[in-house]
Specification:
There is one protein chain. The chain is an alpha+beta fold. It is built from 14 helices and 11 strands. Strands 6, 7, 8, 9 and 10 form a 5-stranded antiparallel β-sheet that branches. The chain has a 4-stranded antiparallel β-sheet with strand order 1-2-4-3, sandwiched between helices. Strands 5-11 form a two-stranded parallel sheet. It starts with a strand and ends in an 11-residue tail after the last helix. The model is unreliable at 50-55, 112-122, 473-486 and 489-497 (pLDDT under 50). Belongs to the FKBP-type PPIase family. Tig subfamily.
Amino acid sequence: MSQIIELQSEGLEKHFQISIPASVIKDKTDQKVISLTARANVPGFRKFKSGSHITSKAMQVKQLQIRRQYEASIKNDVQNDVIVAAVESLIKSNNFSLIGDPSIKINDDSSIEVNSEQNSNSEEKDITVDVKFTVYPEIKIPDFSQITLKKHIIQCTEESVNEFINGLRHEVYEYNDCSEQEKAIKGSKLVIDIAITGDGIEDHNKEDIEFILGSGKLISKDIEERFTDSIVGSQLDISTTLPDNYPDSKAAGKLANLRVTVKKIQQPVLITEQQILDKYKVTSIDELKVKVKELQNKEFMGLSQILLRARLLNQLDKMLDYDLPKPLLKSEYNVVRQNVLAALKDNNNNGIKVALDKSSDHDIEQYCQFVATRRVRIGLFVLHYADKKNITVTDEEKNMLLLQYLNKGKEEANAIMYAYNNNLRWLSNSIAMEAKEIKVINHILENEVQIIEEPCTSDEIEGFADEISKDMGLSFTDDAISENINNDVKINTIQVI
């Protein structure tokens, strides 16, 4: 019989030592050799029929030949089988639920000596195996009847509808080429060529670069302003230090000389009222107001649901209390940190960049640790709750979620395609996890907690969102709010089972 000793274990990290008597290995090896002797084709020997006398001279000679040739590999197979069976028995008898595969190490001084000579008096050593693994924590479902959440019902007002329509009237419908002497103003579209030179900068020419004057999309705001009052054919010589986030990493942060040629200037033409009506497929402004009100109410309902989910997640994060597996924390932290650093380098003002752009390295690391810990804690609960409540995800639901990402925008679609081409398993797991998470959160909101509806205006909603986001470790403004709250609990490393 194997002996099992629990060595120094800490929390969810388990460390056992299993001792397997050499006699167990020897007996099983002998049984396998005997079985193989009867079945194997060995030159000079015939197969023995079932029940042939084991002490027959021919059987003994054949058995000795098999031992000489194959005993080492037979013992190795037997040893592996016995170790695997012992580890599986250890896990099953203790009802351990493992994260990943166990680490199994055979101690060097317990390797088996192979001696094929019969009647050998050499003493074989017992096998000792160190087994290490991480288990899932014991998770208890909290008493949701004690939770009351506010659901903000945003009222769409006539003022907000009129403000939206006035914004439509300032949209650019198209751009028309201007005359050669017409000057560029804020809102003009320019097409330029740039030749960049400097120490360590080689062959760095860019042609047909388009930008809107005043958009802040060029190298820097100061450089962009230099184009005000320029005309077609203007040449500008500019000395500047390229920003650290300049797309070409070899030129980023370096002193550079720019020679810029203005090739084309186009002036914006605002959309007409009729074009607005055609765009929204209505026949009058009054009809447009009705449609805008419907669209705004739908948008507000979506934002209200996002905030409700965020409040529930914040409550869960405070209520759930159990040890978290170190491997999952480490893996999730690496993913979060990679995503945060990529977001900070992005030229677009994404939610993470808005919240963390001026933070210190220490604050960024603290945020990554906070988010990783929160995601693992809530993610484990989601899986546990789904298992207890028999909440499953269909292929159709996963496909619907995938289509939502593909239709969300170019960046999301590119990220999905990159994951599909480089790590299909990760993509499948991530989509399945998020789909399950959505069903679990919706189930809790619909069946477990108490919800109080509270009317509010669209102006008030930002304050509520910022209050919620502070519990998530950030403070957001404007469009950063919903982006970060909605992405709060996307677990990247937990396997859906």
